[in-house]
């Protein structure tokens, strides 16, 4: 990705550019934590921070480390205005305005509000699995991503927003396109990728603008109405750009991340025991064990591996001086494997407690959707386990998710017994 990437993230470091390296970046993280825990990469003009304590500090100190990519010295304004819409959202806004933007939607994501949603998520998960089972080949094989882990969060957020079922496929396509990354060296492919991104951004913007206008005129009981009509502290409403950006953020932030939580967790639960299903067995009918094991999956194969910041003043981290205006990447995925913080950090321990992982970030920008993601993943596994007596991974070459910060696989074929 170029320095104008709307999410403020950069290309992969060269060390992670190959498919196999991005599938298993953990040895490289370990090496960096030991030998260069805070390092400057001149190619990307970016600092990389790898140790737990340092990553947590970068996330917590929102005065020194801004989320606004426009504060970077080498920030280049994108050519098209739509690309900066996302900057108008909480994810890229520092306090004090951050609280205002988050406050418009945060009550919808509180566990109490989500409780009402649980039966609906259960129905959706059950339907998807029944449908996949009906379509299943002779060997009861299915691609968990395609059949289950991908559609579930898209449908849930679409329903929360108030999007009619007939528009869901378009949602999936937009959401996909917007998290996709590409290598800066890809030449033609990069141009194509930018064009696809712009097209998706435009289509989505048009769609949401109409939907927001509709909710202003005829409010309903949905999140789009909350975004269109919600009041800020001073009694004003979100600007058009802020409202639109928030819709797009909710769509992007919650989909492929939750997909990969479910998929990565299957890999953790099944991989770990050479396919004999022991971990899965322990989770069957044990709500607490399942919840604990999902937290460990968030640590062990974190769906979000990296988050970007910009230093607002000169600051020393791990003995290195980061200058004001420099870009910083906090490697959550490495922090979550830091042997200084976790015993047996490179081992998947399903009943690990305590588990202070940074999979949902930390501090001011701690994931708004964490309770929803946890609920979806829990329900997904309860429904999956209720319908299967064993699950094995099919032996195929895995393809990593095409993103420089979301970590997972494009597809995950499993073989199951009912
Ligand atoms: C923020 C991860 C699911 C909405 C974040 C951050 C992380 C994260 C690491 C912090 C970003 C930063 O510090 O810059 C995840 C993971 C998920 C997930 C791993 C799934 C397993 C969701 C869902 C939603 C959501 C389901 C909503 C539908 C958000 C929003 C923010 C955020 C709005 C910005 C919060 C703020 O800036 O105050 N997420 N997320 N996420 N996430 Fe999630």
UniProtKB/TrEMBL annotation:
GO terms for molecular function: heme binding; iron ion binding; monooxygenase activity; oxidoreductase activity, acting on paired donors, with incorporation or reduction of molecular oxygen. It holds the Pfam family p450. Keywords: Heme, Iron, Metal-binding, Monooxygenase, Oxidoreductase. PROSITE patterns: CYTOCHROME_P450. InterPro entries: Cyt_P450, Cyt_P450_B, Cyt_P450_CS, Cyt_P450_sf. Belongs to the cytochrome P450 family. This is Cytochrome P450. It comes from Natrarchaeobaculum sulfurireducens.
């Amino acid at each position: 990705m170029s320095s104008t990437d709307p999410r403020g993230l950069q290309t992969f470091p060269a060390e992670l550019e190959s498919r196999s390296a991005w599938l298993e970046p953990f040895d490289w993280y370990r090496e960096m934590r030991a030998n260069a825990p805070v390092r400057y990469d001149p190619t990307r003009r970016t600092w990389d921070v790898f140790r737990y304590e340092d990553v947590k500090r970068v996330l917590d100190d929102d005065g020194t480390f801004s989320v606004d990519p426009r504060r970077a010295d080498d920030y280049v304004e994108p050519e098209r205005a739509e690309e900066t819409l996302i900057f108008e959202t909480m994810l890229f806004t520092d306090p004090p305005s951050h609280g205002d933007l988050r406050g418009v939607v945060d009550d919808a994501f509180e566990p109490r509000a989500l409780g009402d949603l649980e039966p609906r998520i259960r129905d959706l998960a059950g339907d998807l699995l029944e449908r996949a089972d009906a379509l299943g080949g002779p060997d009861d094989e299915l691609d968990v991503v395609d059949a289950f882990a991908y559609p579930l969060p898209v449908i849930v957020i679409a329903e929360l927003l108030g999007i009619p079922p007939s528009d869901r496929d378009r949602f999936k396509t937009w959401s996909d396109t917007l998290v996709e990354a590409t290598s800066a060296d890809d030449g033609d492919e990069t141009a194509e990728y930018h064009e696809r991104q712009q097209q998706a951004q435009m289509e989505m913007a048009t769609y949401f603008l109409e939907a927001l206008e509709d909710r202003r005129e005829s409010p309903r009981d949905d999140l789009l109405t909350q975004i269109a009509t919600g009041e800020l502290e001073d009694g004003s409403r979100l600007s058009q750009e802020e409202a639109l950006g928030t819709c797009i953020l909710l769509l992007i932030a919650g989909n492929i991340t939750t997909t990969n939580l479910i998929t990565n967790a299957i890999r953790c639960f099944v991989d770990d025991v050479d396919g004999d299903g022991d971990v899965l067995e322990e989770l069957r009918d044990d709500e607490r064990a399942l919840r604990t094991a999902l937290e460990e999956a968030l640590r062990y194969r974190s769906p979000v591996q990296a988050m970007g910041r910009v230093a607002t003043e000169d600051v020393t981290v791990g003995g290195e001086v980061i200058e004001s205006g420099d870009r910083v990447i906090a490697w959550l995925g490495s922090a979550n494997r830091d042997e200084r913080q976790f015993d047996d950090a490179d081992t998947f321990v399903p009943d690990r407690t305590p588990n202070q992982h940074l999979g949902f970030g930390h501090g001011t920008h701690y994931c708004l959707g964490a309770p929803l993601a946890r609920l979806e993943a829990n329900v997904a596994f309860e429904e999956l386990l209720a319908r299967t007596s064993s699950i094995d991974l099919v032996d195929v070459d895995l393809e990593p998710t095409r993103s420089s910060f979301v970590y997972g696989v494009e597809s995950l074929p499993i073989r199951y017994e009912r």
